[in-house]
Amino acid sequence: MKNFEFKTVKKLYINEIKRKKRSIILWSAALFGITALYMLLFSVVKEMFVEKMEALPPELTELFGMSGGSGFTNYNTYFTSVVSILIVAVSAFAASVGSGIFRDEEATGAIEFTNALPVGRTELWTAKVVAALTVVTAPILSVTVSALISGAIVASDEIAVGSIIAAMLLAYLIVLIFLAVGFLAACGLKKSIKPAPIGLGILFGTYLLGYLSAIGPDAVSFLKHVSPFDFLSLGGFMSSSAGVGDGAFGISGVITALVLIPLLTASAYFLYRKRDF
């Protein structure tokens, strides 16, 4: 059995990053721009929202729980409203990266060449996982920096920097869950089955279940516990953290994520070690 060598892992990692460089740059630049566009429009959206709210009868706004209008009149909760949508896209990207990073070489036939090299499976696994983490971390950092810069420009008097960074860490946990789902799909499914659609199906399936728990009767409210977008609710966290709105956030969601991510990743590693390339 070959000894684990960090030097080999470093070489493999650099090679993976070079292959994924285009995706890193495009996703990071696109999300930075989209975040900046929406967040710099905060003042305009705030004025429009207040104007529309004043035109509605008070009874109607109270009926729909919009009397405070905090979701669009406070920069921090407006941020979570925008980012909650962007995180669905980043999570889909993560599921695609996780499922593709272990299947690309199989699809191109390069895996036979890799197996001929003096490289252990654990070294290859480590390099690919760290590379995948790098790929999905870049867009998260891009959104965070863009939101903070925009907030300093348009809402310097109310931006809660600590709360925004903490919210993005929660968003990062959501992304890592679906990255790990991608790993498991790639390593656990037969070669004839493409893992990317499975990973994306799980993502959108859990998203819809979480949405159903919010709009459905109390009998289906338990479904929020199977959706990372709900048990790691950015809106609920920001309401609790910044003291805006009436949302709630529990630490149990964070604990669930911190258990789920290593469990899925370890399961994928076990299947990868047993996989016949």
Beta content comes to: under 5%
Low-pLDDT windows of residues: 59-69
Count of domains: 1
The gyration radius over C-alpha positions equals 21 Å
Query: What structural class should be given to the helix and strand makeup?
Result: mainly alpha
The amount of helix comes to over 70%
- Biggest sheet overview: none
**First-last Cα distance:** 18 Å
Q: How many E strands? A: 0
* H and E string: HHHHHHHHHHHHH
Shape by Cα distribution: globular
Oligomer type: single chain
- Mean pLDDT, all residues: 82
Count the helices. How many?
Answer: 13
Q: Any overview of this molecule?
A:
- With 277 residues, this protein is mainly α.
- It has one domain.
- Helices cover 78% and strands 0% of the residues.
- It is built from 13 helices and no strands.
- Helix 5 runs antiparallel to helix 8, helix 5 packs antiparallel against helix 12 and helix 8 runs antiparallel to helix 9.
- The longest helix has 35 residues.
